[in-house]
Design goal:
about 140 residues; mainly alpha
Amino acid sequence: MSSDLAPRNTSAAPVVADDDNRYKAVQAKLKKLSAAMDDATLELEGLHRDMKGNAAHTEDVVTAIENADLDPKFVRLTVNVALALVGAAREVGSLSDIAQDTADLTHQTRRTHSQLYNELDEIRSNRPEKTPRPGFFNR
């Protein structure tokens, strides 16, 4: 049973939210975000597995203290802890599913962004003439 809440993998740098909307900058931000979400998904899956194990162990403790004729007050308290752990594990599982969905959507967004804007970026990047910045024509 581990109660260490510090993240195991601290290599995921936060994604900077700035106003740099160039194609390559957006692609880099989406790549960082998807990597961070993939890491979060793995961490949450591990936490979910550990919490389910803790809940099962606590249920075994309930059985053991019932069989030992311990005061019913302590049995009820331990049952409440077991139920709380089961509920918390269920919610962490839901959070893990949401993180996975978000990671999948981020990967899909990066691919779609590439399909829509990669060729335009290639044209603009290889052109010797300066071109208007994005948003210039939106005035």
